[in-house]
Design a protein that fits this description.
This protein has 922 residues and is mainly beta. Helix content is 7%, strand content 53%. The strands form 13 sheets. The chain has a 22-stranded antiparallel β-barrel. Strand 25 and strand 26 (397-406) form a beta hairpin. The longest helix is centred in the first third of the chain and has 19 residues, at 2-20. The relative contact order is 0.09. Pfam families: CarbopepD_reg_2, Plug. Residues 278-355 form the TonB-dependent receptor plug domain.
Amino acid sequence: MKKIMTVFMLFMSMQYVFAQTEVPRISVSFTNTPAEDALAEIERKTSYKFFYLSDWLKELRVTGNFQDTPVNTVLDNLFEDTVLNYFIMDSDRIYLLQNNQIYDSLPDDFFGAPDKVEDDFPQYDQLQDIGPLFVGNDDNNRGLETVKIGRENRNSRRRTFTLNGKALNARTGQPIPDLAIIVEGKDIGTSTNANGNYSLELPIGENIITTRGLGIEESRTQIILYNDGSYNFQLNESVEALDEVVVQGNIDRNVETAITGVTLIEVEKIKNIPLVLGERDVLKAAVTLPGITTAGEGASGYNVRGGRTDQNLILLDNGVIYNPSHFFGIFSAINPFTTGSAEIYKGHIPAQFGGRLSSVFDITSKDANTEKFSGEASIGPVTSNIVLETPIIKDKAALMVGGRATYSDWILDSLDDEQLSNSTASFFDVLAKYNHTINENNELKATGYFSRDEFSITSDSIFNYSNRLVSLGWDHKFSDKTTGSLVLSNSEYQFGIEFDGESNDDFDLGYKNNETEFKYRMRYLPGGKHSFDFGIASKLYVVDPGNIDPLGTDSDVSSLVIPRERGLESAVFISDSYEVNDKLLIDMGLRFSFYAALGAGQQRIYQDNAPRNSGTLVETQEFDDNEVIETYGGPEVRLSARYFLAPDFSVKASVNNAFQYIHTLSNNTTVSPTDTWKLSDLNIKPQEAYQASLGFYKNFEGNKYELSLEGYYKEQRNLLDYKVGAQLLLNEAIEQEVLQGDGQAYGVEFLIKKNEGKLNGWLGYTYSRSFVKLDSEFNEERVNNGEFFPSNFDKPHDISLVANYKFTRRFSASANFVYQTGRPVTFPIGSFAFNNSEFVFYSDRNKFRIPDYYRLDLSFNMEGNHKIKKFAHSFWSFSIYNVLGRNNPYSVFFVTEDGDIKAFQSSIFAIPVPTITYNFKF
């Protein structure tokens, strides 16, 4: 009998819904029509009268074409993307409501399900109506700001919805990272990321949300959640003096995320690390973390998990930086005062990124202050830096301009290198950023950047190189569930050499590399367990491999221009962050990349089964402008997963592969300004890499301590290397000078980090190996008998210790210790005579190593007083780089004098280097 009654109740509910649809039909058409005008038109064509508040429809415009359509269907379409509901009363009144609905009857199961209904109908829970939502009348919550999110849908069976948004500083408009967001009484919480973004899965109805953060007033907000939606917290700065503040933001980020091998560096948190010449440097700080190294002191470029320097994608506001260094690699080309954070992916690389094999350095500049004029500056022994921020439209738009320059010649005189001590060098960089919040659904950001270095190592040569980029980003929110981001960027790197000697071979040499990218990315949050990212990207490479012209009328140098290269790299990508259950989270992505080498140009065809040289050249093919020369491409799998072994202990694993269609040409150990880039074409294949990693992550005492252990294995294909004695610059037939082979890398990374207390910092240890194999059936294309040999940057042991001790709020000390195994080199092991000439006989490539490297740096830091009302807040840093005076070798080279082979060692900083830097912020 009870089963029959339940079926009867469901049937009656269906009859009620059917009865409600029996409303008049009308034909109307609207095109971007004000909503009030549209309702007036419906009133004119029916007997209905609408009741509402005009403010609800003030800026709402509607579009739609309806022919013989029921009025309720018309209203459903017009209000679909709004928070408006409606209720039809009798046949002449329609009431509009914000967020919630009017109920003319309670659901039959509102006071509980009939006996045994759950047993008779296992799907009963999914059939239940939610019913009216009631807000509590707790005295503790009176006076709270109440925010209603979404629109109530009486037909929905969902119990939870997604709330996302940003936390912003109400005074400056800047995003607030690491802000704890807690739902009272429901054991739900999260924290904001580096851009101030957050996402929460909340139950329907009333939620009391508390926010807590360093330097931010605690807030409580009553959120009435009807559906998926977004809300931006506008929070005030805290002016209360505290004895100690424990930062709880991103408390378990290292354990909770599914992505392996990812590191977030915030510039403000590295200001105490003692670095060379007192310059705060986000990229140099990255080198103190496991898995990231450089080939040596003063080297530009970074080696990540056994990868080459050209395998790192370095992005500044979505634009590519090709040479991220100043001043022989001692400084990075990224201004620390304009930088907000850097997210480094060295294991699992999200599907939205492509074109590089080893890592992504995703660097984001901070947004300008939209509330008031502000700035920051520093004065050091080598560089000075200033950043100014000014509102353009108060609370909506602002401009930031930052510049940095050097007066560094004096420091070169003190270096323990005769060539460098007789050198001159200078650099500068400028960045401008405009950010504009047009409305709650649209945000525009534009960045322009330029840097230039000029130096002279000898009296007859002047070298220069520059980076330039422009990027434009537009973020648009289509709905509470869907957002889109459009990025346009252009980057250019170029270098030049001007030689003016005593002979008649003076010349002016130039090189340029340019790329333009379009990228459109969307994010869809359907609610529940999924979060989708998908989009398209396309990038046009234009490489001018070099030109040389005579310098002056007396020069005997002939003009030469190497033909331009062009290539188009495109991709589509999609990823899904899928929460399988409370313990298992999977981040799965797929990227399909496609590359086409484009004309106009020439391609040389060589004999099959023969080495590439001038003797095996068969013919030269000509290709017209934009004609496809060769294509490459394929799928790139990005899969990473996290499993909780305990609430603060997780295991993560990832596998991924990638293609890289652009290569560097260099026979130096480290990146130099004269390294050139080569696009894949008919004779040079793209690089490929496959990486698998497994790691364990543990937090102790509420994230006071972090511990991680991660291992990886990587295989690479088509790595570009060079033949002995290769001529790489200004060579039209470059494929005759290079080789392509396999790579292999593996390692283990250990990190222990203390985040709280007077003493904090981290200890990192990396054991890693990196090998190259250049094998061929032809002797001239085989290196080390075709067997694996260590790469130039293979350094098995790497230890970094960073420690900070805070004596008081104003005074602190820091230490930085680094130890690395010496890198491989090729030594001469004998000599022989041939045709009355003496020649040097060298060992197998990279068979020996230079001495191990170690260095200790110390600093003492003094902040100004913490008064709120003062023009500027100051910060002094007294540091000593290389306290032990260790004569670390930068390189080892050999010369022949009077028939003897002599070895020489070059060092950059062989003595302690003291520095005083003054920073102030206003």
